[in-house]
Amino acid sequence: MRNADCHSKNIALLYTSRENVRLAPVYDMLTTCVYADYKDRPPGIPFMGKKTWQPGKSLGKFLASQFGIPPREQAALVEQISDAVSDTAPLVREAMGGHPGFREMGKHLLRAWSEVVISLRDKHAYALGGWTPGDAFQGFSAPPPLKARKRIIGKS
Q1: How far apart are CA 121 and CA 52, in angstroms?
Q2: Which of 26-30, 49-53, 108-112 has the highest mean pLDDT?
Q3: Which of 76, 66, 99, 85 is nearest to 132 (CA)?
Q4: Are 96 and 139 within 8 A, CB to CB?
């Protein structure tokens, strides 16, 4: 979900034997692109030699070759991600209303999540077709542009 700080250390395996190995549930994952200092950072893990937020078919090839997840199972995972984003978005909207300081950040978060799901469902990735994001993604103005802070090191 656009976590520029995701590295191999964020991926774990669960196993009971060498024959029974699976990916652990995701952890330590943030949508870092909603923070001004991280907005332009590429992913921490390259897909097929490229660090891009739009991996297209490379993502599926990567998941199949590195983790043995077949395309049909990948598509089911994308559906689960889509559903999870739709289910979680109303909680973000609720937090936006209850915490005024989070309002603009929440807009950036919902926009980023929507872009991720739409790109995963695109014909260049899994071709799953349209996605109805739900009411939580509607009815608010565009967030202000993110501006990274200037770093000043020393004095001259």
Answers
A1: 16
A2: 108-112
A3: 85
A4: no
Q: What are the contacts of 12-18 at 24+ separation with CB within 8 A?
A: none
Closest CA to 117 of 104, 128, 102, 103: 128
By the 8 A CB rule, do 74 and 60 touch? yes
User: What residues have CB less than 8 Å from 2, skipping those under 6 apart?
Assistant: 31, 32, 33, 43, 53, 112, 115, 116
DSSP letter string over 68-118?
A: ---HHHHHHHHHHHHHHHHHHHHHHHHHHHH-GGGHHHHHHHHHHHHHHHH
Token duo for residue 125? 């990735």
Categorize the per-residue pLDDT at 79 as very low, low, confident or very high, splitting at 50, 70 and 90: very high
Three-class DSSP category at 8 = helix
User: Any idea how long the chain is?
Assistant: 156
> What pLDDT digit, counting tens, does each position of 18-31 carry?
999 988 887 777 88
Phi first, then psi: what are they for 87, rounded to 5°? Answer: -75, -30
- Give the span between the Cα atoms of 151 and 156, in whole angstroms: 14
Place of tokens 């991600």: 81
